[in-house]
Write a structure and sequence with these properties.
By secondary structure, the chain is α/β, with parallel strands linked by helices. It has a single domain, classed as TIM Barrel (Alpha-Beta Barrel), CATH 3.20.20.140. The chain contains 13 helices and ten strands. Strands 8-7-6-5-4-3-2-1-9-10 form a ten-stranded mixed β-sheet. The protein is globular.
């Protein structure tokens, strides 16, 4: 047995998946995703604005409990749901907490389409807490809808920018001024630049203290990495993306842009604060798989440091990852702080 600080997933969609929420597009069909993104663009909306309550069911709390149990069984002691689409999820989680049925610590980023800065309130609970608001600046790389500064190598298009810098700043500022964490999906370099501009407008010299997040940050440039480090913006990366996306990314970006894409090592070398999440169900929830993929880029010790938090709890594995092959390392149990 080998014990390490508990694995933490800073970006997942466990609750929506557990509740049976189905997206309005086919995840296996890039054309379907692109069509959805384009339709939102024409209406001046983002994916975090078009939200709905979970599918009707007799026991939402029970469904969420089963999803959280799967997450704990995968080795997690804490997860952040990145874009909660209805307040009924929060009420169901409160019921689980009150009866002692939270299998791990839960943090919530609320979808921008359902929040009101005058009504949002913290729960004040180490096991269950609302942390902030999630915005959405661009699309995805696979369907060629992430916002890039130059056309894709294989498609004469520059993607979709849902929120320019001024619009994002205007929407985020009422929440930022009340101390809520701002997290913004941004994959393409044009979108990342817009988000950094917005954060600079909102926070000024206080940006590092506020630690706003960029979710994914895949298509980078040297200047963007330097700006993220200078401002103190947090990059929430997905360790498996560099492996899963390698074929489509090379086709979309070409060799020159790939030199700076998915470069978690360069973010760290520049002094950017990096955290990790799975983006489940896009990728597996298993932190062990993510650990080994991230270790290929930054080394195993650094990968463990990015994916775990001793304050959140501990995870017990069958073997020391430093001495065992990836397939030989399994989760034995998790012990969450406060549970």
């Amino acid at each position: 047995m080998w014990e390490c600080p508990g694995f933490v997933d800073h970006h997942a969609h466990v609750l929506g998946t557990a509740a049976g929420d189905v997206p309005p597009y086919d995840l296996t069909d890039p054309a379907s995703i692109a069509s959805f993104h384009r339709s939102l663009e024409t209406r001046g909306l983002t994916p975090m604005d078009v939200v709905a309550p979970p599918p009707a069911q007799p026991d939402l709390a029970g469904a969420l409990y089963r999803g959280l149990r799967r997450a704990a069984g995968a080795g997690l002691v804490q997860l952040t749901e990145a874009g909660v689409t209805d307040w009924s999820y929060v009420e169901a989680l409160r019921r689980l907490r009150d009866r002692g049925d939270l299998p791990l610590r839960v943090r919530l980023l609320m979808a921008s389409g359902i929040v009101d800065p005058r009504a949002m309130a913290r729960l004040g609970d180490e096991l269950l807490e609302v942390e902030g608001v999630k915005f959405y600046a661009d699309g995805w790389l696979g369907p060629r809808t992430c916002a890039v500064s130059e056309p894709f190598a294989d498609v004469d298009d520059v993607g979709v920018l849902f929120l320019d810098a001024v619009t994002l700043a205007r929407r985020a500022e009422p929440f930022a001024s009340k101390g809520w964490t701002i997290a913004t999906h941004a994959i393409g370099d044009r979108a990342i630049a817009a988000v950094l501009d917005a954060y600079e407008y909102v926070y000024g010299d206080d940006c590092a203290a506020a630690a706003p997040r960029i979710e994914h940050a895949q298509v980078l440039t040297e200047d963007l990495v330097a700006r993220m480090a200078h401002l103190g913006v947090v990059a929430c990366i997905q360790p498996l993306f560099a492996h899963t996306d390698q074929v489509t990314a090379r086709a979309a970006l070409g060799p020159a842009r790939m030199e700076w894409a998915y470069r978690w090592d360069l973010l760290l070398q520049a002094g950017v604060r990096v955290i990790a999440g799975s983006d489940h169900p896009i990728e597996t929830l298993s932190p062990v798989e993510g650990l080994y993929r991230l270790a290929d880029v930054v080394g195993l010790d650094q990968a463990l440091a990015l994916m775990t938090d001793p304050e959140a709890g501990t995870t017990v594995l069958t073997a020391d990852p430093h001495e065992a092959e990836p397939g030989d390392v399994k989760v034995v149990e998790t012990r969450c702080s406060g549970l």
